[in-house]
Amino acid sequence: MIKLDLTGLNNFVAESEIEAAIAAAQSARARVLELPMHGWVSLPSDITAADIAKLNAAGARIAEQSDALVVLGAGGSSLGARALLDALPGRGDVKEVFYAGDNLSGVHMARLSNALQSREFSVVVTSKSGTTTEPAAALRVMLKLLRARYGEALKEHLFVVAGEHKSALRDYAENLGCELFGIPEEVGGRYSVFTASGLLPAAARGLDIAALLRGASAEAGDGLEAAVAYAAARQKLNAGGFTTEILASFEPDARNLGEWWKQLFGESEGKQQRGIFPATVSFSGDLHSMGQYIQDGRRNLFETIVSFTGLPTDVEIPPNREFDDGFAFLGGWWLNDVNDVARQSVRAAHIDGGVPVAEIIAPGLNEASLGALLYFFEYACAVSACIDGVNPFDQPGVEAYKTIMRAKLK
User: Fold this and answer.
1) Is the entire prediction scored with pTM above 0.85?
2) What is residue 228's predicted lDDT score, i.e. its pLDDT?
């Protein structure tokens, strides 16, 4: 289970106030299930053994035929996969993963196209709506590359994840005969990591998607109180003028977990001139860039540290007798222990500097713990948005730029 430590808020909000906020959050928790698009709530347990077997079989086929995988999608259609693939070591034959469809840069696409010239590759494209320009443009480029390399056999290298409603992409996949996976209608893009959009790339990299789902299901069953407490605490801070949240991790491989979190909370809460502004930092690297601002800058921010216990690997720092740089005391330390001292020190310094600090602790860095953590954030985000009085499952502001851009392009 994911654990939550709110003691770093005690200097800023009375414990009794946090407890009252958590009790009041129960009505928002009920509201989540009253809104359309809450199908993600039961998603980890809804996926059957047959679904998992189909995903694993497709993933094995990708790994068998490909040196590289292109994950093509915008926003939640690729960020969940990216969070998983970057945080966990791949155990399959796919050596490299590239990403497309999340930008409109010709420079980026030219470099990607060149990189694929010398590799056997497959493409997983996710687009639930089929109305987003970035993946539509990237898919056209990828189809040209696939056809040039594989001819009519391109259908063996293209895997489509689409909404269950009728769409041009779904029709194309069905007519082509390539493997097709669906996203349930009641699951929005940024809550879709436990659909094929996240699970298929994970399976292609050899990750244990059954363990991922077990972790999420366990969190959905017994871990929701911590998620509700996190939601209530952040909204209590928001009401007190702490309007920016910084998500921090001391594991650089979790950087894209932060990017996924940023989209989840930003797109769910940023409406009606409301919402907590989400930002991310990767420590200890960003202590030498953003650290100064966090310590001494504007006091409208609070910090949430994501930490992992029981890490699978470590490296001992050897003694150095070649020169004296004043760090002889590091010899014999293990890096994960030094990293933990850094976490403790940063937490204490930031609290002393006027920054409330919450901490979320995941039991290990593996499929089960990542599944639990992702579900924890999904549930907390939905409850938090409902506390603030906005619908966590729509994104009317995103449509504004799409409408203008499509008109200009036409």
Assistant:
1) yes
2) 97
